[in-house]
Amino acid sequence: MGLIWLIGKRLLYAVALITAVLVLNFSLLHLAPGDPADVIAGEMGGATAELLAEIRALYGLDKPFLVQLGLYLQRAYQGDLGMSFYYNLPVVDLILQRLPATMLLVFTALSFATVGGTVLGVLAARKPGGFTSSMVTLLSLVGYAAPIFWTGLMLIILFGVVIPIFPISGLYNVAKMATGLSRAVDIAHHLVLPSFTLGVVYLALYSRLTRASMLEVMQADYVRTARAKGARERTVYLRHALRNAILPVVTMAGLQFGSLISGAVLVETVFNWPGLGTLVFESVIARDYPTVLGVLFFSATLVIAANLVTDLVYRMIDPRIRLQD
Amino acid sequence: MAAVESVTRSQSARRPGADAWEIYRQSPTAMLGLVLVLLISVLAIIGPLVYPVDPFEIIWAPMSAPGTTEHALLGTDYLGRDILAGLLVGAKATLIVGLTAAALTVIIGLVIGALAGFYLGMIDEILMRVTEFFQVLPPLLFAMVLVTMLSPSLWVVAVSIGVVSWPPTARLARAEFLRIRNLEYVTASRASGVRQGYIIWRVILPNALPPLIVSATLTIGTAILFEAGLSFLGLSDPNVMSWGLMIGSGREYMLDAWWIVTLPGVMIFFAVLGVSLVGDGLNDAFNPKLRRR
Hints:
heterodimer; A: 325 residues; mainly alpha; MetI-like fold; globular; B: 293 residues; 12 helices; 74% helix; disordered N terminus
């Protein structure tokens, strides 16, 4: 009962946030240089003053700001984010075409970062000041300071020129026209460099975070109790300590979903990965505002969804939270 | 007797920053960070004076490798422009935009966080909802939208980075104000009847500064990375040389001429590394108990 009530409350808040993003989008569209009617007329190859007025009336551009906003929200909730001037397609269709590639990239990178980061962090915490521990510190400094797009370019030089073992561009090999399993293998092969580039930044961060919180948790009374009752060291580490130490990583991973998407924009541009990032880059260059804002809206919605999921995962890992709220 | 007295006096006479500097100085990584930051600042300020070559001017054959010609020490780019000149002049744009953006981030975050944490109630509720709203928008994407809709000038880039990056600073400032607002010396100054503005900025703020300074330092690093990312995408001023612009425009030629994209990236790397090492060093210096975590 409590949980359902809570999820309902969170969903309601999520809808409010999504509406706020739509209002921001509409205001930005309104502020954007150039009248949409002019753009449409331009597409048609010029128009008279009467035709311009007709276009304005057709799209409701002659109505007051608030009325237009209401219409915009209504259309958005029916899944209509307008037309792309540049691609001449509904923005929602464009985004749905590109979304799977971005999701594949982001979730591969996130899994790599969380799993790899946790394992490295636990290993580093076993011997503070040891080799793994120093490597984690070094990696976290390098991972933070190297611009992600530059890391990608360096990997392209390394694995495209020096040791050409991974494909450096695109989602799959167009010339191969592979199907079924061999297509999946082909995509996985193309996924290696982009997801490594995106994931390694967060891997560095999560390994440092896990190490710090493992070191803290290992001092806790319940770990001493577990040891005192004769639990094996492996059990103490994994069942008693890690389950508590992983909480900050979960929080961080959830909070950073927005920055992960930001990173994906750069990584996709570097590797010509046909996702939302390349879409937004192309439409920014073409000044295709409806598409640019459509991607902003979709990514914000993804972040809101990620926050909801993080909240639920947190509750699953940490039963103490359930008692509150 | 006299010796004991002088020892006590010298200890009590020390300024509060002196201990922090003592701890900072002992950390080799923190000192390395400081050296990097100073070195890059010096390069940015006097580099173009000592080496007055226009980074946009074509001076030699395109794509000459570093060390192959005395006309361009670090080689030339795909148009035949001097890479070294680009690195020196580009330092200025990258650092100025990074610093301005970081300053804006800190100011916006500090004001919002301080007001929320001090007044609580409705003000806190509203400001925190606004903060949550801004945290939902992917920062780089939001900055791209702002820059595209406005003009691609250095100012717009700096302001956009500031507008998208303040929420973490606001949360930190709010947490610090929440912690300090009920301490005894704050209650005492309330009782003495000073204005609220005075309590916020002159009583609480100085005591909230250490974590805020650390976070401001790290913000500079993030802002430099943001600026580099936006210029890499070609969204900053195309008439101002910057490290990100060099990487972005040279990208298509990098398989034939690795140095065009590699060298500016190395500069960004060392600039951000320097700043973040300084941040870590300050963190240890301000919180000696939390060291080695």
